[in-house]
Amino acid sequence: MTAETSLILTQKAFDALTKELENLKNVQRPAIVEKVSKARDEGDLKENAGYHAAREDLGKLESEIRDLEEKLKNVTITEPSSSEKIEVLSVVTASISGKESEFLLASRDLAVSTDLTIYSPDSPLGVAIIGHKKGDSLSYSAPNGKQIDVTIIDVRPFEA
Fold first, then answer.
1. Is 144 among the domain residues?
2. Percent of the chain, pLDDT > 70?
3. Model pTM?
């Protein structure tokens, strides 16, 4: 995600990510810092595997915090519309190359709010189906050049 890209989330997903960030900063970070401190007190740092493991855990956590903070800076909060056309936050049932599939067209960060498979609106499938409605048939080129046939069976708004 680039700095200019806005992440599209429902209010519920935004709140869940914000809560996750607070947990990382206020619960997990202090616990790992304490672990680093205790391991440091054990002596020789060169041969202290516990210390190095705790420092590595802290580095991973800090990276996760930075990534989440960056995502939350560029959020557009929206709720699904009741449009019959496919748009971001639509739940789509489609026959894709003869196989029926139900999925949510949204950012993968919305996974905190659903068990549905998520396809990005920027994916080849997402780009192909946006603006289509129930009953439409279309095809698009997969990244490998294969033509994929799609028939839209149903479109409904996402309910988080």
1. yes
2. 92
3. 0.63
